[in-house]
Amino acid sequence: MTKPSLLELPPGVQLVYLAEGGANVVYRFVSAVKSPLPAKRSQKAFVSNTAANVSYKEIMQNFNAIVRPLFRDDELVDQTLIQLPEGLIHRCNEQLRLAETNGERPKKRHGGYLSLTEPFGLLVTDMTTFDEPGSTLAELKPKWLTQSPSAPATAHRCRTCALREMKNCDARSLGQKEQRSFCPLDLVSETFEQVLRVTDFIKGCSDRVRLAHILFRNPTLQKLLSHQKAYHTVGLHGPPAQSRENSLDMTLRDCTMYIKIPQDEKSPVEIRLGDLDLKTGAGGKAQYWRDLELQLIEGGWYDGFKSTQESCECALQHSSAHQHPEP
Ligand SMILES: O=P(O)(O)O[C@@H]1[C@@H](OP(=O)(O)O)[C@H](OP(=O)(O)O)[C@H](O)[C@H](OP(=O)(O)O)[C@H]1OP(=O)(O)O
Ligand SMILES: Nc1ncnc2c1ncn2[C@@H]1O[C@H](COP(=O)(O)OP(=O)(O)OP(=O)(O)O)[C@@H](O)[C@H]1O
């Protein structure tokens, strides 16, 4: 049997910097170069950052074997391995250096460049709306949709809100800006008003009520929730400190949901989950996850007594306030 041939990015392809995270820089194609993928499957290139210690080949194998079977194809940001033409990485790195001088690149990403030893990139489903005037893209992270299994039973904060408050306390003491965001428990709530509350914190859709209706009982979110419930080896029940094993359980708690919303309310909304690269406990990560959970428990962050914030977004705080209203 012949092996399927690898896609190759055409040498003359022009890439335009779109965004970046801790491990990937994301580009769009803009040249008239013929698309390397079949029509109608839009794409961009992903190229590896120096921080990446797992090859794209391995990322793809894990994605296909472990993550893909959990969702329908149309629920995922698709990924395809693509060979990069010679010289492309060098050109991209020059662009990145330039982007540091003209303010195009976020300060916290300065100094990170594409790996010169990674011969591949990933083509991914393009969720941008550049070619669809009138459409908007909302982006959110559906983090821990259920409480950590090792959180105290008396907790007034979910794992995500507890961690945010702990980080904000550090930020305050350093005179830095605090982060505010929604409570993930609200995102999968059976009460519409709670889902509406979430939309206050999501950029990309000015019509909050429409977005809330899209999210309310959304089947992909519900599926993610049931996978998080099934894969619950996290917190103090997580992988042992020295483990180098993969952690699908933590991967499912750190993905991004992209929601492409057409102007016309009758046209279908496209919702996909991305950033589902399999995490591993290697490199001290398993130890870090355990230590973090211990800090949240022992530091009282789950209890919420430490918070100096006047109001907390956490659904657990809201429900306990409801049960025990302030005198
Ligand atoms: O620790 P958390 O829950 O804040 O999640 C981290 C993310 O922070 P955020 O979602 O922005 O609050 C964090 O996102 P950012 O870099 O802040 O965009 C990473 O995704 C990190 O994963 P990794 O270490 O790159 O594998 C994430 O770490 P882990 O999920 O691996 O612990
Ligand atoms: N398929 C996509 N369509 C549109 N925009 C995207 C897509 N993938 C990524 N982006 C944009 O690029 C940004 C960074 O991408 P991504 O989160 O995958 O990087 P990362 O390095 O994995 O981030 P992290 O810091 O979470 O590890 C996203 O927040 C999003 O704005």
UniProtKB/TrEMBL annotation:
Name of a matching Pfam family: Ins_P5_2-kin
GO biological process annotation, one example: inositol phosphate biosynthetic process
Keyword Transferase: yes
Domain of life: Eukaryota
GO cellular-component term (any): nucleus
Any GO molecular function: inositol-1,3,4,5,6-pentakisphosphate 2-kinase activity
Listed InterPro entries: Ins_P5_2-kin (IPR009286), IP5_2-K_N_lobe (IPR043001)
Tagged with keyword Transferase: yes
EC annotation from Swiss-Prot or TrEMBL: 2.7.1.158
Stored PANTHER family: INOSITOL POLYPHOSPHATE KINASE 1, INOSITOL-PENTAKISPHOSPHATE 2-KINASE
Descriptive protein name: Inositol-pentakisphosphate 2-kinase
Biological source species: Penicillium daleae
